[in-house]
# Entry
Amino acid sequence: MTVIVRDLRPGHRADAEGFARVRQLALPYFLMTADSVAYDLAHAHPDAHFRPLVAEEDGEIIATAQVGIAHDSPRPGQGYLNVYTTPERTGRGAGALLVRAAEEHLAAHGATKLFAWVLDEPGNRAFAERRGYRASRSAHFLRLDLANGALPPRAQLPPGVELRTGADFADDPRPLFELDAEAMRDEPSDISYEFTDYQAWLDEGWDHPLTSQDLTSVAVAEGRPVAFSVARTDGGTRYGTVMTGTARAFRGRGLAKLAKNDSLHRARAAGYTEGFTGNDSGNGPMLAINKWFGYDVCATEVRYVRELG
# Structure
């Protein structure tokens, strides 16, 4: 049986469904749908040189790769490739073919340093290390049983603070962009990011089909958003938070916890039964907050890095 690697075809529904299916099987803690796959391809920033790849065996997609340049980093030449294979279809060479194609693409677009997330399992780590990648930081996926778990009770809001939803900013989400840009600068990561392109932020995040503006919670004080918890949903029963943060001048007051608790309560009331999030393993404060909510670590990924000569 022959394995081939090719590009994901824009506008091809079966490709998007196959890509999402592989990711759901290999990484069930990360929300992805066929619609989100198609949207990501259609709205990728041109400077990202985004190239989703698939590996096929006898016409069936068995592995995928998300490949691109970190265009929103102030440091040039940083590329990423995240490769996942259907668990029962490993050992067929699909991953190796995808890595080779991804590296060639990134090198052709000026990448000098490559980053790849690898599930923290011996076989996966050995696969990366054989190809010259070295382990860097790690991150955890966390799961919360929204159907049966007990959420912390809603706390009384501090004076001068109110809670709103993301939908309340539908006419002008720029204040949320500014808050996100400030909070992102302090996120632990191998790659530093700077949100300076408002339209790209809208295209890649705020208007994304998985983003739930209704379930996103925002703490407002002094007339502006000062803390938020951005929610995503898969259109079924799964809910996730992809960013929870606070403006620097308002930290230490528990406002991010208030916003996230509000979002979780409303997600459960809306019928969502599973909650997911992710944290850098060195982000002690956020891990403590999520433990307080009842999240448990369900998987760990390790960031692997390779320098191109």
The two ends are 34 Å apart (CA to CA). Helices lie at 13-26, 34-42, 94-108, 122-130, 174-184, 198-206, 255-269, 284-293. The chain has a mean pLDDT of 95.
